[in-house]
Amino acid sequence: MKKLIILLFVALTGTVFAQEVSKDSIATLKLREKILKLNSKANAYEQNVADKTNDIANYKSKLEDAKKDEHKASKEAEKMAEDVKNGTIDAKLAKKASKAYSNANSASKTVLKYQERISDAENDINKLNNKIEDVKRELSSLESKIKFIKN
């Protein structure tokens, strides 16, 4: 009998102290967890946009330098071509002309490389901005669900 009373006492106190968590509060907590994850994702996308924007500024600076080098190299190549055209062709002059042409070609490739990098980074930024908009739409939807559950 004593065991039965102790067992009843433990069972009754256990039910008194146990708190029931409503299904609405569980659903709200799960939605809040999704919102936190989506906010983290949006922040990561925004950080990537900032990084790409910095990359573009860096590439534009390098592009300007490359354009100057390209202009200088093309002028040198033109001068050498004119010298070869007007003068007697000797090995030394031909070698200089070849090197000037090679430098101009290399400089042009460098300009194209930075133009491509800028274009790629701008495309990446557009894609990231679209992803950010998608995440924000989803966040808005989840926040309205939380408000609906609370009411």
Q: What would you say this structure looks like, in words?
A:
With 151 residues, the protein is an all-alpha fold. Helix content is 93%, strand content 0%. The protein has three helices and no strands. Helix 2 runs antiparallel to helix 3. The two termini are 49 Å apart.
Topology (SSEs and partners):
Layout: H1 2-17, H2 23-86, H3 91-150
Helix pairs in contact: 2-3
Largest sheet, in brief, is: none
Count of strand segments: 0
User: Into which percent range does the helicity of residues fall?
Assistant: over 70%
Give the tally of structural domains: 1
In brief:
The chain is an all-alpha fold. The protein has one domain (about 20-150): Helix Hairpins, CATH 1.10.287.620.
Task: Tag the structure with descriptive keywords.
3 helices; 151 residues
